[in-house]
Amino acid sequence: MELSVLNKAGEDTGRKVTLSAEIFGIEPNQHAMYLDVKQYLANQRQGTHKSKERNEVSGTTKKLKKQKGTGGARAGSMKSPVFIGGGRVFGPRPRNYSFKLNKKLKSLARLSALSSLAKDNKVALIESLSFEQPKTSEFVGVLGKLNFSNKKTLIVTAQKDTNLYLSSRNIQKVKVAEAADLNTYDLLKAETLLLTEDSLSTLEKLYSTK
Question: Which domain holds residue 61?
Answer without folding.
Answer: 51-91
